[in-house]
Amino acid sequence: MNRNVPDPWRKGAAWLWAAAFVLIGASLFAIAFRAPVEAVMGPVQKIVYIHVPSAMVTLLAFGIAFAAGIAYLATKQWVWDAVGTAACEVGLVFATVVMITGPLWARSAWNTWWTWEPRLTTFFILWILYAAYQVIRASIRSGSRRTISAIMAVIFFVNLPIVWKSVEWWRGSLHPRSVTMTGEMRQVLLLSMMAWIVFFAAVLERRLRVEWAREASARQSASGDADARALDPGVRGASRA
Amino acid sequence: MTYAIVAYALSGLLWIAYLATVSARLKRALRKK
Question: B-chain residues within 8 Å CB-CB of A214?
């Protein structure tokens, strides 16, 4: 394996994955057997237990990308670019889960797969923006790739508060503001949220390691000797990997 | 019920597919060294 990845980090990642699997297992069990079946909608309501935590983690991921974007623009250290791009990509997968589970829930709740109401529309725009981030980043092969990615992560973040507040700002919003739940439902939702946050951290670490390995190999081919230039997150943009 | 199962199954498959691509990319990046 990569000898540039420090050992304590690898051990930490293993623990993170173990915790994620235990928590996800527990939450799936709780969703199936502990959470009560909702009176009106029936078992379909249980989609909420992945839809809401996924949406929450999406916002968390893009928030991290925003912070990393600012940090990169301020310091030009490659590690912030790595954090930013990893968070954007993992966040997009969570956003896709939201886009899959939402319509399946809406078909039962509203009798339609999709409607152009404020929350759905703003979230759809969010999904498009961060999908565009991936396409634009991949298409830049010059030295400005990292700067442009950071600028995109900062600018696209503007849409996040709009998604968040959309259910309050516009009248005629169908999307539930907050879910009224019994104590047991709330417990299961909280457990799911915890599980998804830990899972997100584990996936982010793994995705980050890809950037780490790419940077290491780019520096090695640049200098011809990896050990002479140990991978230091503080070293300024050495590669265009 | 069917929709709930489809939602969970699709989400699970998406994650498995994504994690597989990340692992493949990591392997490729490490082999380059």
Answer: 29
Instruction: For residue A227, report the phi and psi dihedrals to the nearest 5 degrees.
Output: -70, -25
Is residue A131 within 8 Å of A99, Cβ to Cβ? no
Tell me the per-residue pLDDT of B9-31, one tens digit each, with 9 for 90 and over. Answer: 999 999 999 999 999 999 998 88
3-state secondary structure of A77: strand
From residue B17, alpha-carbon distances to A134, A164, B10, B11, B21 in Å are 17, 29, 10, 10, 6
ipTM associated with this complex: 0.92
Chain B residues 4-23 with a CB less than 8 Å from chain A: 4, 6-8, 10-11, 14-15, 18-19, 22-23
| Close Cβ partners of A174 (under 8 Å, ≥ 6 residues apart) | A110, A115, A117, A119
How far is it, in rounded angstroms, from Cα A191 to Cα A22?
11
**Listed ranges A23-27, A106-110, A222-226; the one with the highest mean pLDDT:** A23-27
Q: Are A193 and A60 in contact (CB under 8 A)?
A: no
For A176, the 3-state DSSP assignment is: coil
Give the closest-approach CA distance of A118 to chain B in angstroms. Answer: 23
Mean pLDDT of A172-184: 76
Does residue A236 sit in helix, strand or coil? Answer: strand
Residues of A within 8 A of B15 (CB-CB) are 93, 97
Instruction: Find the CB nearest B11 among A50, A105, A108.
Output: A50
